Amino acid sequence: MKAADVRYEPYDYLTFIYFFLLTFILLFFGGLEYRIITNLVLISLLVILSMLIIRNFHKEQHGIRAFIRMTYPLLLITFIYEQVGQFINIIHPGFFDYQIIKFEEAIFGNNPTILLQQISHPLLNEFFHLCYFSYFFLLLVLGIHLFLRREYAVIDKTVTASTIAYYVSYITFILYPVEGPRLAFAGQYSMKLDGFLFVPLSNFVINSAGLHGGCMPSSHVAVALVTVLISRKYAPKLYPYYLILTSGLLIGTFWGRFHYVSDAVAGAILGFLAVWISEWIYSKLWTNS
Questions:
Q1: How far lies 170's CA from each of 79, 214, 216, in Å?
Q2: CA dist 98 to 40, 55, 73, 102, Å?
């Protein structure tokens, strides 16, 4: 395929827009110190890598090259996620938990994660942490399912919606950093969440790789909502399982004290909007996809 014939997808433009916004934030608020420069170099390398994939990997090739072409933004998400963690407080030195805490106390009378201690049970803890942990497989399984069926147009919609959810979440983490209840209420819980497998596993992952300040909105909920809405319309065999896991995941975000209820609600709204925007783009602007 010639360079002139290269077809760009919405998620390509979204990826470049995200890199541009992050570059602007780093330069405007971080200046030219060493860590800023090194991350600008990393962003440049990711842009170059993205361009190489777009120009040299095509859907018509099928196989692994087609899969990489359609999903490369999601394959890069781990690097992007880790990078954002370095700059959560580049604009605001503190966190905005006090605003969310005040808001939720006005509604519930106390923070829901503290109120839920009254009904905490190891089996419930395991179930909700299982659902929470399923996040790491929902998008992968759905993508493979669609790819094996060669439903490339649906994969495009899924990746576009997912990148919207991810990129909006990551920029919001920087603009509105929130620690989450497990840190904001550290020492205030009267009981530990007990569990035998998924509780310690989820806590290990969060303690090892979670972003300090990356809670609002919940990107877990946003992307999980993307998968359940896509599966409902395009992969009905997966939908019942995705509905159960995503419902449990939404509750698990604050059951496990990883997020406030507000984070989960904001993530759900973002997920719905991401799918709606993706569907609108492909029905109105990318009608020849």
A1: 12, 8, 9
A2: 32, 47, 34, 6
- Residue pLDDT, tens place only, 38-52: 999 999 999 999 999
Query: Please, which contacts does 4-8 make with residues 24 or more away whose CB atoms are closer than 8 Å?
Result: 6/54, 6/55, 8/54
Residue 250 near residue 224 (C-beta atoms within 8 A): yes
Contacts of residue 32, Cβ cutoff 8 Å, sequence gap at least 6: none
Do residues 216 and 263 make contact, with C-beta atoms less than 8 angstroms apart?
yes
Domain count, the chain: 1
Q: How far apart are the first and last CA of the chain?
A: 17
Q: Is 284 helix (H, G, I), strand (E, B) or coil?
A: helix
Structure tokens at 132: 């929470």
Contact partners, residue 110, CB within 8 Å, separation at least 6: none
Question: Domain range spanning residue 224?
Answer: 3-285
How far apart, in whole angstroms, are the C-alpha atoms of residue 164 and residue 215? 16
pLDDT beneath 50: ranges in the chain: 1, 3-4, 289
Give the tens place of pLDDT for each residue, 234-249: 999 999 999 999 999 9
What gap in Å lies between CA 271 and CA 36, rounded to an integer? 31
